[in-house]
Amino acid sequence: GVDLVELGLERLDLATPSQAPDEPTIETPVARMHDTIRIRDVDPLSVDLPLAIKSLVEQTSAPVPRSAQSVLRRLSKWAKAPQQSTVSETLNRVSALLLAEGFDASLQPPADGRVEWADGQFTLAVGLAFRPLLVDLVARWTMADAPTSIFHHLADHVTRNQAHVAVAYAAGCLAATAPQIRSLAMRYFAPTSECLAELAVSGDSLHLLVVAYRLLRRMPEAASHGAWDWASPLTELMGREHPSLVRLLACECLCLARALADQARSQLVGSLQLDPQLVASTRAWLVHGMQTFDSRAVGLTVQTNRINVERRLWLAEPDAPHPWVTESQLS
Predict the structure, then answer these.
(1) Which residue of 141, 175, 176, 310 has the fewest C-beta atoms within 10 A of its own C-beta?
(2) Is 0.85 surpassed by the pTM of this model?
(3) Contact 100, 71 (CB under 8 A)
């Protein structure tokens, strides 16, 4: 493995929490969403759940994950004859849909080992179709009975580690345009849960490292999770016995986890003595991929919100203030 002390990491300048690792300055599209219809501008109680399900089934162009296919069939059947008594179970199934793409990827990672930033389109489509309910849907992952009420919809048996990867994958996708789910997603990871970097040592390293990178990029608070040790497994994956791409991705994740300043990151990456072309192309792939994913996600969010309000799939909240009783009325 790589010894951080030998590399001089302890002597490198560390970034303050507000500083970002070395990368091109990015004007994220998410910052330009303030003039659009936001999640808090929509009344969650106004959502037409059967119509939202039909819209997802009929209009999404994203490939449907294998584990989501039976769930979608059940939801379609319910939408044709909805029953109020089964609304909660229906929402549990929708919550499971958000996890399906990440769950399938944890079972059968891509043949080339990579998780492209373009992945996550089905997760994004589900999040957009049920956007006013997104906070509730993500909160359902944290329930004590989630293994039986949520995850069992994906498979008869879901391991703890598979569930962790699925949540990390989904959170990394959804947080691009819905940062309000970040605290709920982190609440899912109990103090006893394994760090993604630890799973990467014993599992499919490339796949898990890209999932970890996206989670750290979207949710910096993942770096300070009290029970997670990022440094040990990541430095192990930076050892010479591992493929070059694994070493580089592990290094990039460590830079995010440690919030390394520009100089520190450059020194740490340089210490790996990798092909400069591989370093440059991978860095461009990560940064450009994030920009592309964000731009697409924001564009779809704005478009979907506007269309769904126009179709009255859900209703914008009225401009009039809530009629609270004033103190003078109580006297």
Answers:
(1) 310
(2) no
(3) yes
